[in-house]
Description:
Layout: H1 23-40, H2 45-55, H3 60-83, H4 91-107, H5 114-142, H6 149-173, H7 178-196, H8 223-254, H9 259-271, H10 274-281, H11 287-307, H12 311-338, H13 344-363, H14 372-393
Helix pairs in contact: 1-5, 1-6, 1-7, 2-8, 3-5, 3-13, 4-5, 4-7, 6-7, 6-9, 6-10, 8-9, 8-11, 8-12, 8-13, 8-14, 9-12, 10-12, 11-12, 11-14, 12-13
Amino acid sequence: MSATILRRSPDRSDRSDGPPGSPWLHVAQAATALAVGMGVGRFVYTPILPLMHAQAGLSAGGGAHLATANYVGYLVGALVGILRPALVRSPKILRGSLTVLTGTLAAMPFTHSTAVWIALRLTAGAASALIFVIAVSSLLSHLRDHPAHLPGWAFGGVGAGIALSGLLVLALRSVADWQAAWWGSAGLAVVFTALSWNLRVELPHTEATDPGVVTPPRPVRTHRWFNALFAGYTLEGVGYIVAGTFLVAAIDQASPGWIGSGAWVLVGLAAVPSSALWAWLGRRWSRPDLLFAALVIQAAGIALPALVGGVAAALISAFLFGVTFLGISTIALATGAHLRFPRSVALLTAGYSVGQIVGPLAVTPLLHHGYHQALILASAVVLAAALTAVVLRIGFPHHIPDDTTDGPRTRPAS
């Protein structure tokens, strides 16, 4: 994903496919795009996975391969956004991606072929990435002069999509099968697609011609901090996605019934206000400190159901995971933008995507013994990411002149 220093122009800033409105309208449309692209398109697979294991004959290894295919597709979509930045300003690409993603959800029940499922999840991943890149680029460019909590609430659309799709699967699992769960998620995607169809994606007039390049007022070398951030965010991609893929299955294994799907709904509900919350905390604490705290909290949440059984541990784990995974992304993207590293958001997204590919592959050998070892390994990787935040805070340049971000605008305490 890429963004730029934007200069608002009265005659072009409101150019869109729909009528201009309040910033909250833009927030709502971006939130619904993120809800379908990420909350449903990517994460509905998590609560459906146990149903596919039980009813569709999908093996544990096959489940990991489907997850990996989705993350490979996401990386492809992210790279397209890097190599063809004009695409992130195209309403046609947004609408095409929304349509393709919804179609892949609806097509999943029509086959029992793992190879076809892999192809569908690969395609869904690419569409999800393009939706994310386009929606976030639009959101952050049009709202850059508004309070930081506004983009934060829009990012909460991911959590809303997770919660609503999780509730849908929870309701269907007692009266229908895995096929109905996929069709139901496709129907939910249709609703979100309609609500986000007219999202303004053309960027306001800019003085820069390349929306992937951030031009500082004077040279500021921030490579060493960006390298630490990049390493940590890539490790976060490895660790978080193991929990994001297998948390429900792990809880179902220890506590059969509604607990797994219920915990996933709690993940979504906790994620809705999380980005706005971390943006608010960013007014009082520095970004490296916030990143460290969020990563440590997430590591504890991922490890909890593997170390402590029972419903309470499962629900606490879900809450800690939900309240941190979007927050970590918003903090990391904001930090990269603050450092004024060229194409910081796109590069961080690509590293994150690579981590998501590695994660399921790394834990596949452990799945023969259940999910607990996989969660412990994921927790350890997230703790390693927290250590990079310690490195990041050493000499961190809190004040860079004319700080305009291409990510969520959280500012450290002065």
